[in-house]
Amino acid sequence: MKFPQTHTLQQIATIINAEFVGDSNFPVEGMNEIHVVTPGDIVFVDHPKYYDKALQSAATIILINKEVECPEGKALLISDDPFRDFNKLTDYFKPFQKSVENISSSAEIGENTVIQPNSFIGNHVKIGKNCIIHSNVSIYDYTEIGDNVTIHSNTVLGASAFYYKNRPEGFDQLKSGGRVLIEDNVDIGAACTIDRGVSGDTTIKKGTKIDNQVHIGHDTVIGKKCLIASQVGIAGCVVIEDEVTLWGQVGIRSDVKLGYKTVVLAQSGVSKNLEGNKTYFGYPAKEARKAYKEAAFLKQLPSILNKK
Predict the structure, then answer these.
(1) What is this structure's pTM?
(2) Taking the mean position of all CA atoms in its chain, how far away is CA 8?
(3) Which CATH code is given to the segment(s) 2-93?
(4) Does domain 108-289 bear CATH number 2.160.10.10?
(5) pLDDT tens over the chain, length 308 residues
(6) Which residues are catalytic?
(7) What's the CA gap between 269 and 299, in Å, rounded?
(8) Domain ranges of the chain
(9) Rounded Cα gap, residues 28 and 41, in angstroms
(10) Bridge partner list, 182
C-alpha cells in the first residue's frame, strides 16, 4: 500500500508514538507485508525468528520490537507492539469509510456495464466496460475490475484477510488496507469470496474462469487463463502461474507457488510448491501417476500379507 504522498520517518513515528533510528527526514512511501515490500516501504516484525529476514528485505523502514543495529541505507521504528502499530498505520492511511448508498457516488462504472438489483458497489470501486454484475454481489471499497467481466450472485470481493495474532485476551486481527484487482475477461461464479490484500493486492489476471463457491485468500495472485472448479480453497499469499487448472475441492496452503500449466486433480491438498506442466493428485499432492501407483499397491497389501 503506497501512501498518497511521501512522509518522513519522524512523521510516521509521531503517528504511532514510536522511537526511531535514522534520519528524521528519511522518506517513507508506503507499507507492505514482507513478501511484497519494495524500497520506501515499512515492514513490521515482532518475532526474533524473523528479525534477519525483515532487516534484509527490500523494505527500507523496519517496524520492530527490539533495538538492533540498523542496516545501512535503512531506518528503524522501535515499538513495543509492531502488530498494533501496523494496524494504526492502516487505520490512518486507509480508514474504514461507511457507505450511504447501494452504488457509491465515488464508484467509476464503464460503458455498457450492467449492475443487477440488490448489488452493493463500495467507495472508490472501478468497473470497466461491458461487465455484468448479477444481483446480491458485494464489491468492497477500492476494488478494481477490468472489461468484459461477469460476476454471479452472492459473490463477495474485498472482505478482510483471515490474519490474526493470538493474544491472551483473544485473537487480534491484522487490518486489511489492500485491494482486489480483477483483470479483463474474467468470469466469477456464484457465492465466491475473494479477500483483499492486507496491504497489497489480491489479483486475478486476464481470462481466468472461476466456478461457484471458490475462496481465494489475501494477497494471492492467480495468473492468466486459469480454470478453477467449484469448492476450491486457496489460502493467502499463493502464486498461481498462467493456465493452471484446479479441479473441485482442491485445497492450497499459504505461501506456495504453482507453476505454469499445473493441473491439480479433485480433492487434492497442496502443501508445497508444484513444478509446472505436470498433473498432481492426493494429499499431499504428488505427481498423479506416482499417486495412482501407490494407491494400487496399497490395495494389494491385504493379499500380500495373507500369503505370509
Answers:
(1) 0.93
(2) 28
(3) 3.40.1390.10
(4) yes
(5) 999 999 999 999 999 999 999 999 999 999 999 989 999 999 999 999 999 999 999 999 999 999 999 999 999 999 999 999 999 999 999 999 999 999 999 999 999 999 999 999 999 999 999 999 999 999 999 999 999 999 999 999 999 999 999 999 999 999 999 999 999 999 999 999 999 999 999 999 999 999 999 999 999 999 999 999 999 999 999 999 999 999 999 999 999 999 999 999 999 999 999 999 999 999 899 898 888 777 777 777 777 667 65
(6) 218
(7) 21
(8) 2-93, 108-289
(9) 6
(10) 145, 204
